[in-house]
Amino acid sequence: MTDAAGAPVPAAISPLAAFALKGLGHCWMPEHGLFSHRHRLDGSDPANESVPASDPFYSLTALLGMSRLPGQGRHTDFSVAEIFNTAADALMRKGVPRYAFGMCLWASGELGIEIPDRTSREILRLLENDAACQTFTAQDLGT
To answer: Nearest-5° angle of CA 32, CA 38, CA 39?
Structure first.
């Protein structure tokens, strides 16, 4: 289906998906361009807790979930491609777990968004380092 301008109109999403996206909106940190590591529901202020080494992973996880929706999140106010690029670039931060790079690969494949060059080079560097590969955890490999 297309709109009046001829642009594709994403299929409707389920009430559960709409509810989840509404909740995800509370985790949005516009100042970082990412979703928060944690969102407190107990009324604490601030409700969002940013953990710079974890925010990119959680953002990529949210995008992976959006990839399963009709239109891959195009029916939201979020720019999936911008968030993906921000998160992929943020993987270069100190302390980001290695499994976050696997999430980047997975989300990239599901969303059809190319990984930024700098992040791609880092992933290749990790994979070409035999000593580093020997220390991968199950989570590193499973993600």
So the answer is: 95
- In the three-class reduction of DSSP (H, G, I as helix; E, B as strand; rest coil), residue 32 is classed as coil
Distance CA(1)–CA(50), nearest Å, equals: 39
Please give the C-alpha separations between residue 24 and each of 66, 68, 71, 115, 130, in angstroms, as whole numbers: 11, 15, 17, 23, 38
Instruction: Give the residue from 51, 121, 57, 109 showing the smallest Cα distance to 87.
Output: 57
Per-residue pLDDT 10s for the chain (143 aa) are: 455 555 555 568 888 888 888 888 889 999 999 999 888 888 888 888 888 999 999 999 999 998 988 876 666 778 999 999 999 999 998 888 888 999 999 999 999 999 999 999 999 988 888 887 777 777 767 66
Are the beta carbons of 21 and 72 closer than 8 angstroms? no
